[in-house]
Amino acid sequence: MRFSVPFRSGLVAITLMASLTGCDENKSNTVVPAPPEVGVVTLAPLRVAITTDLPGRTTPYRVADVRPQVGGVILRRMFTEGSEVKAGQQLYQIDPATYQAAYDSARASLARAEATLQSTSLLVRRYRPLVAANAVGKQDYDNAVASAQQADADVASGKAMVETAHINLVYTKVLSPITGRIGRSSVTEGALVTTGQATVLATVQELDPIYVDVTQSSTEMLRLQRELDDGHLQKVDDGQAATRLILEDGSEYSEPGKLLFSEVTVDSGTGSITLRAVFPNPKRLLLPGMFVHARVEEGVSEQAILVPQQGVTRNQRGEPTALVVGGSDNKVELRTLKVDRVIGDKWLVTDGLKAGDRVIVEGLQKVKPGIPVRTVATGNAARPQPGAAPLAR
Description:
Blueprint: H1 5-29, E1 37-42, E2 46-66, E3 72-77, E4 84-85, E5 90-94, H2 97-132, H3 138-171, E6 173-175, E7 180-182, E8 192-193, E9 202-217, H4 218-230, E10 242-246, E11 257-262, E12 272-279, E13 291-308, E14 313-314, E15 320-326, E16 331-336, E17 338-343, E18 346-351, E19 358-362, E20 374-377
Parallel strand pairs: 1-20
Antiparallel strand pairs: 1-19, 2-9, 2-13, 3-5, 3-8, 4-7, 5-6, 7-9, 9-12, 10-11, 10-13, 11-12, 13-18, 14-15, 15-16, 15-19, 17-18
Helix pairs in contact: 2-3
């Protein structure tokens, strides 16, 4: 079939018009996606106390091992194991019979020496005028004087022997050297004990107050000192650093303590320094040997930047990063951070973020650097954290 030229031209025109109409319809059906919505936290500087949790163990304030100072047979035990005892309270009674006899003998010897001294002293007084009149020989007088001096020395020796015998007699009463809680007894009635024996009869420990010995690495100590010198941190006060205690079950001990001193030598094996804190222990809740964590207030940061942990991730090199909404175009930026420690549920950031930055904490999986977003404020704004609450100015 043949078509005329005018007919073919019209057909081409109709085809072109249909094609153009289809393109216009496709353009009208194209929808530009809206920017994803993310939750952000606007950072603000806070004045917070910088704390460090350090592991350690409790140790008694004072410890006394009770040992016998004289030998003999234990007649009585005069305390209840695990009870509180006072300084000077009698704990044991050692058989005093032989020591009582020695004391009585020493007193008798002293009395004899004193009688001899009296006799010789009278003889010397009697001879003194006679020797001047040549009625008594000089040699007899000298012998009387020497005898009196010897009797005087015997009296002094006798007094020392009486005192020694009395001390040994007193030592048959084994007394508590300190006030504290006494542990189990290693001997019972009828046991034979000796002077200087290695086995202790019992141990008394003073538990109120109680020490907590913790360790801190020398690296952390240097960092802390450097920040204090630079002014990034300020001391909490001029006195001892305040300290709180975290018990083995995770609860916080009700009584605050204070840091007493730090060791002057770094342990060559562990590279750590020992710190000692003291805590009141009126209820005897803390017992020697308990594993605890001491929360030491190192100083105060005046311009701390805290970021919720869910807003901080790690890149392939393990560096902490955060996505920040920047500028008026609301485009996402990737920031590499330097973080110091966790405070509550937030990271303390020392570099990479500043006050006023909007950090994405919700919807991270929907965005990537360079794309615009719509921001919504979340309830994760920086707020007081356990152990590092903002301090009132």
